[in-house]
Specification:
Helix 4 links the parallel strand 1 and strand 2. It is globular and about 50 Å long. The longest helix has 15 residues. It is built from eleven helices and eight strands. Strands 1, 2, 3, 4, 5, 6, 7 and 8 form an eight-stranded mixed beta sheet that branches. By secondary structure, the chain is of the alpha/beta class.
Length: about 270
């Protein structure tokens, strides 16, 4: 099967538009990832910051507070529905592989759990490179290896058990989970001073239903695809995920510890 870039982008955009404000509510338990990425980005008052694949602007809002009134923080996402959730922020709907900003516009580009949703990540990295100032910094997070991210892979495992293989190839959201490979990809896009560090975090759920709804509220294109299934198949998935969650059971429900990689790099 060949990969249809345009279809993939349409599906992701539709999915995140569908999720809308539910994403904002569901992202709360991952707030420590925002803090970890902000710490790595070393923001300062007066800087110009672009938050790429911003969703509803959680990271952008914190960045705006860090750069102050003398700086600028812009939320940018392909989903207008996500950007509608942050009307108090400067925001631009845009494809991260073709950014509508001038060369050397920003001191920092942030991308929290976003690079894996760009089908051509090299194009996205080149665009980030183009809009960064020579002394600027890219700070981003990506999911670790699949086995290190039960928060996501548990739901995907359930889908693999119950559903036939997808008709349209999708790039794996775990494809940047190897730090050495990620470093090579950054270097090939003309970045230097590359630093990549793992960060682990834990999210708890009261029951399997809460876990499944949390996945749907964050999953974008996957949620869009699932919404097109017959209702009985959707219900079967929601019921079956408890089997996949079993290794993470605790007295209070389920606790899943997952890993991201936080990377910083400068343009050559």
């Amino acid at each position: 099967m060949s990969f249809d870039f345009a279809f993939f982008k349409r599906l992701e955009r539709a999915g995140y538009n569908r999720i809308g404000p539910r994403y904002l509510a569901a992202a709360g338990p991952r707030s420590e990832l925002v803090a970890a990425l902000l710490a790595a980005s070393r923001l300062a008052p007066g800087q110009r910051v672009l938050d790429l694949a911003s969703g509803p602007g959680l990271l952008t809002r914190s960045a705006r507070d860090a750069v102050g009134d003398s700086g600028l923080a812009i939320a940018s996402d392909i989903s207008e529905g996500q950007l509608a959730c942050c009307p108090d922020l400067a925001r631009v709907a845009a494809d991260g592989e073709a950014l509508p900003f001038a060369n050397r516009s920003f001191d920092r580009v942030l991308c929290g759990l976003g690079l894996m949703f760009f089908p051509d990540e090299q194009a996205a990295l080149r665009e980030i490179h183009r809009v960064l100032r020579p002394d600027g910094l890219l700070a981003m997070s990506v999911w670790g290896r699949a086995e290190e991210v039960p928060l996501v892979d548990t739901a995907l495992s359930c889908m693999r058990r119950l559903l036939p293989p997808p008709k349209v190839v999708r790039p794996s959201i775990f494809r940047f989970g190897d730090a050495e490979d990620l470093a090579r990809r950054l270097a090939s896009a003309d970045y230097c001073d590359i630093d990549i560090r793992p960060h682990r975090f834990t999210v708890s759920f009261s029951d399997a239903g809460a876990y499944w709804q949390g996945f749907l509220d964050l999953a974008g294109g996957a949620a869009e695809s699932l919404s097109r299934l017959p209702v009985e198949k959707q219900q079967a998935l929601a019921a079956a995920v408890s089997e996949d969650l079993a290794p993470h059971a605790v007295a209070e429900g389920y606790r899943l510890t997952s890993s991201v990689l936080i990377a910083t790099a400068r343009p050559l």
